[in-house]
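Cross-check.
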Amino acid sequence: MYDEQKVGVVVPAYNEAGFVGDVIETIPAYVDRIYAVDDGSTDGTWDEIVESARRVNGGTWEDELFSLDSEHEPRVVTIRHERNRGAGAAVKTGYACALKDGVDVAAVMDGDGQMDPAQLDRIIDPVASGEVTYSKGNRLTSREDYESMSNWRLFGNFSLTLLTRIASGYWGLSDPQNGFTAISNEGLRSIRIDRLYDEYGFLNHLLLALNVNREPIADVSHPAVYADETSGINYWRFIPSVSMLLGRNFLERLVRSYVVRRFHPLVACYVIGPLATITGVVGGLYALSSSVVNTFLGGMMSVAVGTLGVLLFVLGVWFDVSENEGLVTKVKYSKPRVLDAEVEEVPNVQPGLEAYQNRGTTATSAEGESE
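Predicted model, tokenized:
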């Protein structure tokens, strides 16, 4: 329990052998349930999940297998997809189990070991306290964070941040692809998780669903953690597919928020602005190349139309930012300071591990089945 809230953590994993076991076993003791979801891995991920579940739950795994409905209520519930269905599908399976189990706050920690368990309470706290519906991590708040990422990864993250801000309406968020998240039970019930994207665009699609319901979110700064793991993202497929998804999300948000729910003039600005800009550019090119149209007058008219289009689009953005103001709460991270005289007294343990070893609970082992 965390602040009298029942907490569950979804651990999605695809080919994360060598990492997922440590993730499961270092999750803090205040977490009531762990939903380890193997998304059709082809390496030793499933065996590692089963072995870690056996150690955490206690007892002998082969003695008896229990499902989520079991009266024994294991701490680690294992779920396996028969085929690879996508990162979003794995999280959705875990969310469905959390809803069925009556979890108050459902967090997500990827099975690649990039999320520090010592930071989990900071991700959960804004949701458990009732301040926000959804909380997500942010690794882009300091120079050290930037330097820990490759240039390609950093460029992709900044680009997706801008596009996701426009598409989702959460103009204050950063690092949208950060899967270190937490959401309330009410938040999960308010959106239709079965309709969300199954692959890596899941996080962006989830933000759209939350914004349409005007749900407040928290952007929680935390240090980045990178080791020997490799990204499973195929950027040649990921960037085009997610860009198309974000475009659809943007149009869906405009219709649902500013047409269906209530009309707002920003829709006209967003529609007329780009059309006028394109018309101005095309008209200018035609004026320069045509012998029939006066080049000066045609050019000036095109510049005027194009400028008006840009101004209308900027006005639409300003309206949009104003309408969504206050929906994102920033939670800053302060690096702990250790005095030189105290260095020798600090035990050399992995963050989050000591608390688990000293205060961890023991439950009967279990295996859940995905639907």
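Residues 295-323 form the longest helix (29 residues). The two ends are 27 Å apart (CA to CA). Passed to J.P. for a second look.
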